[in-house]
Amino acid sequence: MSNKVAIIASNGGLFDAYKVFNIATAAAATEKEVAIFFTFEGLNLIHKQAMQQLPMPEGREHFAEGFAKANVPSIPELVEMALDMGVKFIGCQMTMDVMGLTKEDFIDGIEVGGAVTFLEFAKDAAPTLTF
């Protein structure tokens, strides 16, 4: 059985962020080696400004109160927790180039790489998840 969990984050909404970082931190807490590949809108989850204002799905605004009542950490807090737990963050170089973004646009601690970088990690991961 693999000790690796590979996650692809290709969507950039608030619910997507909670899914990605909840799974990543849970896996890291069980001593799995975890890598997240952020591509297309998924780059919003680690972008310094965008991660502060991820969109709530339309018609789901009532969840904001539930998150607060349940003391659910914010996305920036979950990002910090994941990094502290050793989760590897890989920003997609191709997508960054297409969008005119540089490593400086993102939080500290990310690696920039292409699909090959992620595939090298994911080749023996189980599970591999996409959000």
TrEMBL record:
InterPro entries: DsrE2-like, DsrEFH-like. Pfam families: DrsE_2. Signal peptide: none annotated. It comes from the Bacteria. This is Sulfur reduction protein DsrE.
